[in-house]
Specification:
Shape: elongated
Distance between the termini: 38 Å
Oligomer: single chain
CATH class: Mainly Alpha
Radius of gyration: 14 Å
Strand content: under 5%
Number of helices: 5
CATH superfamily: HPT domain
Largest sheet: none
Order of helices and strands: HHHHH
Helix content: over 70%
Number of strands: 0
Number of domains: 1
Length: about 120
Amino acid sequence: MPDDQEPVLNKEAALELCYDNEGLFLKIVQAYLEGAMEHSKHLLYALEADDTHQIEERAHALKWSSSKICAGPVREAAQLLERVRRSKDLSEAPQLYKVFKKEFKRLFEHLNSLPPPSA
């Protein structure tokens, strides 16, 4: 499980991946926000429908995109949800989603506090 004390984002590592280009980082964050919101919404739908295939697909997409911006807690929470299909046990899914939702909200609030990318 993600640690509440862990920063939502390792900006230094993310900037390093962007060749220390702040503008590029902010553009990637903007794209992340748009895609992650969509995947998060569909993840909830999949959980409500007990659709393990879609749970795995959406969680995998969120894990991958979160790793690209060095958002460790969201990546970890998404990874735990991704494993639901492999275990074929949905009993833990609601609790895992709660953790994911809390971490995603923390990240979303942080990313929305960043300046918008310049044109």
